[in-house]
């Protein structure tokens, strides 16, 4: 029997994806959200699930260390890899947006300083509008940057909007809608076609 290896983030993605797996009859009795286990198998031993940092999911899939990855569109946009993107799971919904103080104007002469976990998305977006930017890569607490004068604006994920609101910031422009996607290694798709198609088909049916 051919086993599928699936990589996904161990944080927000995991709980939501686990519910979907359950709906299509893939059960991980070993799983509980406080577990520190990085590799688990489903009860029928058909799926090996590996928990990785969300930004690393595409790397595992592109290199064939995982056949399938579940990862946010934001991560794929920031660092595109050579894989098939086969499905939108509709979980982990949020937006990538430019945020800052309400009165911020983008069109003054000096380059705008943008702090972000997503410097490529930020640069592409502003350059596409003919606005010069300098990006500052941060790994968290992005909303702090405008508050302490490190950056004029930020480009970040907004889900409920609570973090922005509690820090006196607002969405200035939406860049993209985000949700979790199923990505597939190209060689795996050729060698494990029926299992992968069945997995995707079951998920699609469950979401209808
Ligand atoms: N409020 C949110 N903040 C961050 N990411 C969100 C939010 N809502 C949905 N997402 C999605 O979840 C993804 C992060 O997934 P997850 O939390 O599983 O990753 P992780 O590697 O465990 O997290 P971390 O990087 O915090 O350790 C993001 O890339 C994004 O697509
Ligand atoms: O709109 P909201 O519902 O408030 O969610 C958005 C916040 O969540 C994420 O941060 P995360 O919790 O991953 O923490 P981080 O600062 O370590 O990136 C994101 O970077 C925003 O700060």
Return the structural class.
Answer: alpha/beta
In the CATH classification, which architecture of the largest domain applies? Answer: 3-Layer(aba) Sandwich
CATH class of the largest domain: Alpha Beta
Average pLDDT metric: 95
Please estimate the helix content: 25-40%
CATH superfamily grouping of the largest domain: Periplasmic binding protein-like II
Oligomer: single chain
Q: How much of the polypeptide forms β-strand, as a percent range?
A: 25-35%
List low-pLDDT spans. Answer: none
Number of helices: 8
Please compute the radius of gyration using only Cα atoms. 19 Å
What is the straight-line distance between the termini?
Answer: 28 Å
Element-by-element helix/strand order: EHEEHEHEEEHEHEHEEHH
Largest sheet: 6 strands, mixed
Your description of this structure?
The chain has 208 residues and is of the alpha/beta class. It folds into 2 domains: 4-92 and 179-207, D-Maltodextrin-Binding Protein, domain 2 (3-Layer(aba) Sandwich), CATH 3.40.190; 94-178, D-Maltodextrin-Binding Protein, domain 2 (3-Layer(aba) Sandwich). It is built from 8 helices and 11 strands. Strand 7 (112-116), helix 4 (119-128) and strand 8 form a beta-alpha-beta unit. The mean pLDDT is 95. Residues 9-14, 53-54, 72, 74-75, 92, 94, 157, 159, 178 line the site of adenosine-5'-triphosphate (ATP). The site of 1-O-pyrophosphono-5-O-phosphono-alpha-D-ribofuranose (PRP) has 12 residues, from strand 9 and helix 6.
